[in-house]
């Protein structure tokens, strides 16, 4: 039966940090809640707590954070209902010894589980005629949870456990019962709980209404800003067209000049070539004449005796004549000097932009004419103890090596494909040294033969072989959360928003603070990438590149990128936990598409399609870079983390010590 099946808890009953049901939930002043053990302990002495979700800081220690009683009760209710609804039976039939009849409804007034017959009788007695009887299928939807809480979790006096509290002592700031008023609170300022709740509810609802009214003002402001942004976009398009036109005209002029210069050069060199040809032919003829004459003279000199005396005059005359012609015909012009004096010069065209207030643009950018790139330097005092140069990227960050692009030659996003998954293997990654049950929060491919996984249960990062699943190396990390790999190493993000950079052998190299998310690309990438608030940071060798996002989310004042990935073409996909969507970002940092889906772990395949995990439905959604929804792929278990390399998908599941590897099949 449908109601016998396990039903998942609502997303708001899961801790944002550990993804489990809340355990001893604590509520920060920003109203965000976390498990007690998930709140960073390092802030206890400083008396400063920063919310991991909204990043707001509060002057409060961990011990002063109050319990979230509402969430405690909701979690307890869910756990109880999960047990009761596995095989619910009618309470009245049990009492009347009529066997375990299946319960199909529940009374939310007295919480009795009822079969079909008993549920119809339940509202037919004078005592229960006003009771509300609801089908269990609707109870499981959660919309009656608050009503059930009011009945199930009544508050009883701490001193008199059988007495329900009806009063609130303002003097002692405590809930008390009727007995307490007489014994311990004589003369105190006491109010009825119902009256006080009514008063406070009225005040709170009034505040809510005031905020709702101000929200309409904010929406009008947003409309105005959106209009201005659209105007700015039109102005930008106009200026871009103007720039392109000017550049096109300049290129046309250069092309015309090129053709003219080539023609002039051709004419000049043709004449020089003809002159040189004449000289060559003349010298060739002279050499032939000299050779013939000298050969004849030598024959005469060797073959005759006294009679040759009569030939000397003619012979010498011929030789002297040839010598004279040689002196007259040898060209003495040094053509190499003439050609070397020809210089080809380019008078460089210069495109400039001027503003009424030039400092407005030069505050963030400065001209760098020595390099043919669009990266401008900016003064930065310190970036997490990184002594390398810092840049703000204006166009495109360094992504991957050329070899990475060669492995993506079969990209053709216009081609329609059908996707399916085939589970090929699962690996149990427990080791004898593990002291606690393993559960994995993140996985990432290192190469075709290795992957790295975060065992949060044992606070370890483990490198494993594929397909054998052998643990090759591991290291201890405090509160590890996520992991990524690139050509020269491995990065691990912790729950305290620290990023530890390891070598390929898991030797720690550096630690950076205030990191929002890792931003993995191909494992062969020459750069490591991560997110700092709303900035994508890329580190290549000792150079750090920063790409500030030009984002326009529904709530631009509150964004938190929990998961991300970097595509080799310079595009990005970012999961925004605050606005509950996934953004597609181009190489300039502009968000060009918002995907309305749960902001969960992301990866990409060899066709640059985006895979987004769907934890709630044990599946993945597939989108192309235009934001078109391509497929929904079912998984065996709920995915905590995904990573794709070529056609292999690796998944870290919700519970247990296994990771799962699938073949992605394209048709």
Keywords:
11 helices; Herpes Virus-1; zinc ion binding; 667 residues; four-stranded antiparallel sheet; Neuraminidase; six-stranded mixed sheet; single chain
Domains counted in the coordinates: how many?
Answer: 3
Radius of gyration: 41 Å
**Main sheet, how many strands, which sense, barrel?**
6 strands, mixed
User: Which of globular, elongated, flat, extended, rod-shaped describes the shape?
Assistant: elongated
Low-confidence stretches: 1-6, 356-413
Q: Strands of the largest sheet, in order across it?
A: 11-12-25-24-23-22
Terminal Cα span? 36 Å
Question: How many alpha or pi helices?
Answer: 11
What is the CATH C level class of the largest domain, in words? Mainly Beta
CATH fold assignment of the largest domain: Neuraminidase
Strand content: 25-35%
Helix content: 25-40%
Mean model confidence by pLDDT: 81
Domain B box-type: 88-136, 152-193
Domain RING-type: 15-55
Keywords: Coiled coil, Metal-binding, Zinc, Zinc-finger
Protein name: Probable E3 ubiquitin-protein ligase MID2 isoform X2
Q: What is the strand and helix layout of this fold?
A:
Blueprint: E1 25-27, E2 33-35, E3 49-50, E4 57-58, H1 69-84, H2 91-95, E5 105-107, E6 113-114, H3 116-122, E7 133-135, H4 136-139, H5 145-152, E8 167-169, E9 174-176, H6 178-183, E10 190-192, H7 193-303, H8 312-329, H9 335-340, H10 359-362, E11 375-377, E12 390-393, H11 402-406, E13 419-428, E14 440-447, E15 450-455, E16 460-465, E17 471-476, E18 480-486, E19 489-494, E20 499-502, E21 508-512, E22 517-518, E23 527-532, E24 535-540, E25 543-548, E26 561-566, E27 572-576, E28 581-585, E29 591-595, E30 602-604, E31 610-614, E32 619-623, E33 629-634, E34 639-645, E35 648-653, E36 658-666
Parallel strand pairs: 12-25
Antiparallel strand pairs: 1-2, 3-4, 5-6, 5-7, 8-9, 8-10, 11-12, 13-36, 14-15, 15-16, 16-17, 18-19, 19-20, 20-21, 22-23, 23-24, 24-25, 26-27, 27-28, 28-29, 30-31, 31-32, 32-33, 34-35, 35-36
């Amino acid at each position: 039966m449908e109601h016998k099946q396990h039903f998942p808890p609502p997303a708001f009953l899961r801790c944002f940090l550990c993804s489990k049901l809340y355990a001893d939930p604590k509520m920060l002043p920003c109203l965000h809640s976390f498990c007690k053990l998930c709140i960073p302990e390092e802030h206890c002495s400083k008396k400063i707590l920063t919310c991991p979700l909204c990043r707001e800081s509060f002057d409060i220690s961990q011990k002063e954070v109050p319990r979230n009683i509402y969430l405690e009760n909701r979690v307890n209710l869910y756990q109880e209902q999960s047990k009761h609804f596995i095989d619910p039976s009618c309470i009245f039939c049990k009492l009347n010894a009529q066997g375990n009849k299946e319960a199909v409804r529940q009374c939310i007034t007295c919480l009795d589980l009822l079969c079909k017959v008993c549920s119809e009788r339940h509202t037919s007695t004078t005592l229960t005629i006003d009771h509300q009887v609801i089908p269990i299928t609707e109870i499981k939807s959660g919309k009656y949870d608050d009503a059930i809480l009011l009945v199930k979790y009544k508050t009883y006096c701490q001193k008199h456990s059988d007495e329900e509290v009806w009063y609130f002592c303002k003097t002692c700031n405590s809930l008390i019962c009727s007995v307490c008023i007489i014994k311990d609170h004589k003369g105190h300022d006491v109010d009825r709980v119902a009256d006080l709740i009514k008063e406070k509810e009225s005040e709170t609802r009034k505040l809510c209404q005031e905020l709702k009214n101000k929200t309409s003002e904010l929406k009008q402001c947003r409309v105005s800003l959106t209009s201005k942004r659209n105007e700015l976009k039109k102005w930008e398009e106009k200026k871009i067209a103007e720039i392109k036109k000017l550049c096109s005209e300049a290129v046309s002029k250069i092309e015309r000049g090129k053709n003219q210069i080539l023609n002039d050069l051709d004419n000049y060199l043709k004449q020089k070539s003809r002159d040189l040809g004449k000289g060559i032919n003349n010298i060739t003829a002279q050499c032939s004449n000299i050779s013939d004459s000298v050969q004849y003279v030598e024959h005469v000199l060797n073959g005759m005796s006294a009679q040759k005396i009569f030939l000397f005059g003619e012979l010498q005359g011929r030789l002297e004549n040839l010598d004279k012609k040689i002196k007259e015909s040898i060209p003495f012009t040094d053509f190499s000097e003439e050609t070397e004096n020809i210089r080809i010069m380019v008078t460089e065209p210069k495109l400039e932009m001027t503003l009424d207030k030039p400092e407005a643009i030069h505050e963030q950018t400065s001209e760098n004419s020595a390099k043919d790139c669009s990266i401008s330097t900016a003064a930065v005092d310190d970036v997490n103890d990184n002594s390398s140069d810092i840049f703000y990227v204006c166009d495109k960050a360094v992504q991957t090596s050329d070899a990475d692009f060669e492995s993506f030659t079969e990209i053709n996003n216009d081609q329609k494909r059908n996707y399916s998954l085939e589970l090929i293997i699962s690996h149990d990654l427990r080791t004898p040294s593990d002291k606690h049950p393993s559960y994995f929060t993140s996985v990432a491919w290192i190469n075709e033969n290795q992957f790295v996984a975060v065992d949060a249960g044992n606070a370890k990062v483990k490198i494993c072989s594929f397909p054998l699943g052998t643990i090759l190396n591991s290291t201890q990390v405090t509160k590890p959360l996520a992991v990524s790999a690139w050509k020269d190493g491995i990065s691990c993000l912790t729950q305290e928003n620290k990023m530890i950079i390891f070598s390929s052998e898991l030797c720690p190299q550096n630690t950076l603070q205030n990191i929002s998310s890792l931003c993995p690309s191909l494992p062969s990438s020459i750069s490591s990438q991560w997110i700092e608030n709303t900035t994508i940071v890329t580190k290549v060798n000792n150079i750090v590149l920063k790409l500030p996002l030009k984002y326009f989310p529904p709530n631009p004042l509150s964004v938190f990128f929990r998961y991300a990935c970097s595509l080799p073409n310079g595009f990005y996909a970012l999961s925004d936990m605050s606005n509950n969507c996934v953004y597609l970002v181009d190489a300039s940092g502009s968000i060009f598409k918002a995907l309305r889906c749960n902001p969960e772990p992301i990866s990409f395949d060899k066709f640059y399609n985006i895979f987004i995990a769907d934890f709630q439905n044990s599946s993945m959604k597939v989108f192309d870079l235009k934001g078109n929804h391509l497929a929904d792929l079912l998984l065996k278990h709920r995915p905590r983390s995904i990573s794709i390399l070529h056609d292999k998908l690796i998944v870290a599941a919700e519970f247990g010590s296994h990771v799962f590897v699938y073949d992605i099949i394209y048709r």
